[in-house]
Design brief:
This protein is mostly helical and 333 residues long. It has 13 helices and no strands.
Length: 333
């Protein structure tokens, strides 16, 4: 039923994602406690630092941000025809992945940065074969800068702007500089705020890479085995789906091939971001969630396919069961 529901091409099925997100948010509110963000940027601290003192507001915003990210990633998936037919499986995967831990449901900078990075990706993908791409390139830079101000490790994704642009069009020298203007706009305001309040930004927590790689707080709980099992099955689904995603590029139109290649590069930069945070002394509780978007797209190719339909269905339901078990044992039971 889960697969047939979200394999539909009717956008109304997205409304069904509100229920599990709401149930998970209420359960997280009553049975678990939020963890203060460790790697939050100045924008997050300034605008939302007080949110964690109001748990109900924190989980409400957290669930809303996860749902918004699901809608955005599915929009990219359908508008640029990543699959042979329109469906809403990526949104379902994104939401289930996002609510798999009660602590992830508390408002955090990782899912917030995901929103801005997906907005940047959407704007960048629209520059293909248009005469004037200046506004879209500027917006892509602007949204990326906002992602960095909310979650500084997202700075690892900044070079993606030029990699993606180079894949989609033969950019002029002027166009190569436009993303810098978008990036610089929020930075100027941030620096002005630091100057006005006579503060100095501290980047020490983002520059110490001397430690060993860590998956974050999730891997250091009594239920870490369940966490790694969940990650393992998720990785298997992503790898299977990525093979199908890449194999489809050979028979795609030039436009679809290029937009798919841009998403692959987007995913590579997100993986680099996650690996980078893994070597920092302190890691955000939702650090793995930086991979939510590529997980949603690639895993959907594993869960929603006409080939090996029975096995792909079993994989989907087994993965969903792990989502529920992880949620329960991470903070409820």
């Amino acid at each position: 039923m889960l697969r047939s529901l979200f394999a539909s091409n009717r956008p109304v099925v997205l409304a069904f994602l509100v229920l599990p997100a709401a149930i998970a948010a209420v359960a997280a509110l009553f049975f678990s406690e939020g963890t203060a963000p460790v790697l939050a940027g100045p924008a997050f601290d300034l605008l939302f630092g007080y949110v964690h003192r109001i748990p109900a507001l924190s989980v409400a915003l957290g669930a809303a941000v996860i749902l918004a990210g699901a809608v955005l990633v599915n929009s990219v998936y359908n508008v640029h025809e990543y699959a042979d037919r329109e469906n809403y499986m990526p949104a379902a995967v994104y939401v289930l992945f996002g609510i798999s831990s009660p602590e992830w449901l508390y408002f955090n900078p990782v899912f917030t940065a995901n929103i801005f990075l997906l907005l940047a990706l959407r704007r960048l993908l629209r520059i293909y074969r248009i005469s004037n791409a200046a506004s879209m390139l500027y917006d892509a830079g602007l949204f990326t800068a906002l992602a960095v101000l909310f979650y500084p490790p997202a700075a690892a994704c900044v070079p993606f702007l030029w990699v993606g642009m180079n894949r989609l069009r033969s950019a002029t020298l002027r166009e190569w500089f436009i993303p810098l203007l978008g990036l610089g706009t929020p930075v100027v305001y941030a620096l002005a705020a630091y100057w006005w309040f006579e503060m100095t930004p501290d980047f020490e927590e983002f520059s110490d890479l001397g430690g060993r790689f860590r998956f974050g707080p999730d891997a250091e709980t009594p239920h870490s085995r369940l966490f790694f099992l969940f990650l393992g099955i998720t990785l298997a689904a992503v790898l299977i789906g990525s093979v199908r995603f890449l194999s489809g590029m050979g028979v795609s139109t030039v436009h679809r091939k290029n937009t798919k290649a841009v998403f692959v590069w987007f995913s590579i930069f997100l993986v680099f971001t996650f690996v980078y945070t893994g070597f920092l002394p302190e890691n955000d509780v939702a650090a793995v969630a930086s991979l939510a978007a590529p997980t949603a797209v690639f895993a959907s190719f594993s869960f929603n396919t006409d080939k090996a339909r029975r096995w792909s269905g079993l994989l989907l339901y087994f993965w969903t069961a792990l989502v529920v078990l992880r949620f329960l044992y991470a903070g409820i039971l």
